[in-house]
Structure formats: structure tokens, C-alpha cells
Amino acid sequence: MLDLAIILPTLDERENIAPLVDRLDAVLGDIAWEAIFVDDNSADGTAEAARELARTDSRVRVIQRIGRRGLASAVIEGACATAAPYIAVMDADHQHDPALLPNMFKTVRSGSADVVVASRFLAGGTAAGLSSERREKGSRLANALARRLTRTELSDPMSGYFLLETQRVRDLAPRLAGIGFKILLDILSVAPEPLRVAEVPLQFGERRAGKSKLDRAVAFEFLVGLYERYLGQIVPTRFMLFSTVGALGVGVHMGVLALLLLLLGSGFALGQAVATFTAMTFNFWLNNWLTYRDQRLKGTAQLLRGWIGFCLTCSVGALANIALASWLEANGLFWALAALAGIVIGAVWNYALSSRFVWGR
Ligand code: GDD
Ligand code: MN
After folding, report:
1. What is the 209 CA–ligand 2 centroid distance (Å)?
2. Which residues sit opposite 203 in a β-bridge?
3. Ligand 2 mean position to 170 CA, how many Å?
4. Cβ-proximal residues to 144 (8 Å cutoff; 6+ apart), any chain
5. Which end of the chain, N or C, is less packed with Cβ atoms under 10 Å?
6. pLDDT tens digits, one per residue of 153-163
7. How far is Cα 199 from Cα 115, in angstroms, rounded to an integer?
8. Are 81 and 8 in contact (CB under 8 A)?
9. What Rg do the C-alpha atoms of the chain give, in angstroms?
10. ipTM reported for the complex surpasses 0.95
């Protein structure tokens, strides 16, 4: 009878996984467990290495995802793939000590808590593994905000190490954003009733091999998460990012145009054409990097095809923009409002088409 599934999201963790399975085996005793590696097609061959383990150990399972990214969605997918009534989510890089699992498991199974979280900030825990002081500070600040969202007194709501009933995650899955890495925060904040939480101290260790994937993304993902939570219902997060990038593109356009006209003395039509292409290229690059960071296009062929697609989309969007704005203006609408309406229509059009045809969702 399967009791517990350990969900292990992985991105380039090849060297870490075999020793981790050994450590799980050593501490889990009479708990019937399976380990599910949810790998986002790591370039270092993590999925192959995990399958190699799975051939000789039926407790090891592998989900290899192609063309998708993200810690949170990997966790949700792992939870949907197991028959075990309980799941533990942990990092595959040995920063989370598997020795805590039996106790965490007992606490949840006995019903004395809905979720057990291994906390770096509880007395007896340490955050030594947080590589920089800046990150530690950021982490504390984010925690204070997060406690309000989760309606709990958790000392470490951003922890990536926790255990709960599998069904709970599956039930909440349709409401989970699945974006970014703060999956525990999401689970706690979308639960209809505040969940009963318990904490165990975690001595957050050093990662064994490889490097952190979150360093650069951490702050950004957190801001995106806050936006998603408070305003995401009104203007969808991705559209908001797309529009922000678009607004920056207008700045780029003006800068380039001014440069060409004023410094290089080019004609207006040529300047406008060059500025338009520069801005479209800039927008394509920034959207690929930010707005669609979880489904980023990579490699020359993909990037080239994406860039051409994006420029085509934008050209059609610009036509729609001009057509609508001129029509409205001709029918007596104040010019600035007409222009604004054109811009909004163009942006919605560009967004709808490029999210479908350039970044393919
Ligand atoms: N499938 C998948 N997809 N796995 C990922 C992805 C992804 O996009 N990004 C990271 N992972 C995996 C890593 O391979 C590792 O097993 C685990 O998720 C944690 O990633 P790290 O890159 O080691 O994160 P960290 O140590 O910097 O961050 C830790 O602390 C954060 C709070 O400060 C983690 O425990 C986070 O969960 C935690 O929120
Ligand atoms: Mn780590």
C-alpha cells in the first residue's frame, strides 16, 4: 500500500538524484514511498539518469516535460500523477534533509495538521544555505507579506519543503496559478478555509552539485505573484507584462527615431521604418525573456521564426490600430481618445495572436 510520494522537481540535477534516492531509502523505513522526478527536459540528462534508476528500482518514477517550465506546475503535475494519499515536495539538490520526512508524515497522517512545512526560520533551523545576505533579507521581507496572504503564522511560507494530503493539491489545482516557484504560498492562499499548519525546523543545507535556478528569478516571480493575486483577475498577468513591454517599446522607438533624425539627419520615413523594426525586435526579445519566460524560444531557428512571426503579427496589429483610430477620429471622437482606442485594440490583437502563434499556447 503506497503511502507517500516524494515529488522532486528537477532542472539540471543529474549528479544529485541517485544519492538522493539512497538517502530517501535510508530514512523512510517502513513508509511505502515512491519518488517522482518531474523534469523539465534538463539539458544535462537528468531525465535519462532518473529513468536509469527507475529501471532497477520501481519506487522511482519520471515525468519528463517537453516545452514547459516551472517549479510550481511541476509540483502540481507530480501530485496528479501519483496514487499515494500523501505527497512531500522537496528540492532535489540535497538542501532539504530527507531525515525530516518520517515525522512530517506522521504529523499529517495523524490529522494534527493539514500541512507540515520544514522551516528555515524556526528556532533550530538555519537559512545558511541562502547564498547571499541580500537574498536572506529579501526572503524575510517576502515572508512578512506572504504571511498575510496565507492567513497563517508560518515562519517560512516560501519553503519548498512540505508535506500534505495529495487530494488537497488536486482539488485546488484548477485555482492554482502554476506560475513561478512559490507553490506552497499558492496552495495556502487559495484554500477556501485557512489550512492548519505545523512546522519543523529545517537546517537548509548547501546544494550538493549544480547551481540554483531561482537566484535571478526570485524577486521578479514574487512580484508577479502578488500582482496575479490582487489584480490578475482584472487584467491578466501575461497581458499586463506584454503591455508593459509594449510601452517600453514605444520608448525605444522614440529614442531611435530621435537619434536618426536629429543626429544622423535621416529622412522621416527611413527613420520611422528603422525605429519600428528596432522596437519590434526589442519587444520580441523582452517578451521572450520576461512575458513568456516559461516557454522561451531558444536557438537560432526558433528565435528567427519567432521574430518573423512577431513582426508579422505586429504589422497586422498596427493596421487594425490605424484603421480603428482613423474611423473613430473621422466620426468625431477626440483625437487622443481615438489614438488610445487604436493602441488598446492593437495591443490586444498582438497579444492574442503572438501568444497563440509565436509562443504557441
Ligand atoms: N521541473 C522543474 N522546473 N524544476 C525546477 C525548476 C523548473 O523550472 N526550477 C527549479 N527546479 C528544481 C531544481 O532542480 C531543484 O530541485 C528545486 O526545483 C529547487 O530549485 P533551486 O534552484 O535549488 O532553488 P533554490 O535552492 O534557489 O530555492 C529554494 O528556496 C526557495 C526560497 O528561498 C527552493 O526550496 C524554493 O522552493 C524556495 O521557494
Ligand atoms: Mn536549491
Report:
1. 10
2. 126
3. 25
4. none
5. N
6. 888 888 999 99
7. 8
8. no
9. 24
10. yes
From the number of C-beta atoms within 10 Å of its C-beta (0-12, 13-18, 19+), residue 26 rates as: exposed
Directed axis angle between helix 101-109 and helix 14-27, to 10°? 60
pTM: 0.74
Q: What is the Cα 244 distance to its own chain's centre?
A: 19
- Ligand showing the shortest atom-to-Cα distance for residue 294: 1
Which position has the grid cell 538524484? 17
Which CATH architecture best describes the domain 4-211?
Answer: Alpha-Beta Complex (3.90)
Lookup result for grid cell 503579427: 313
Q: Are 146 and 186 in contact (CB under 8 A)?
A: no
The best mutation among 61, 89, 91, 143 to test binding of ligand 1, ranked by most ligand atoms within 8 Å of the C-beta, falls on 91
- Residues 4-25 have pLDDT tens digits of 999 999 999 999 999 999 999 9
Match 502578488 to its residue by C-alpha cell.
226
* Annotated domain spans of the chain: 4-211, 237-358
Strands, E assignment, 3-153: 4-10, 33-39, 60-64, 86-89, 115-119
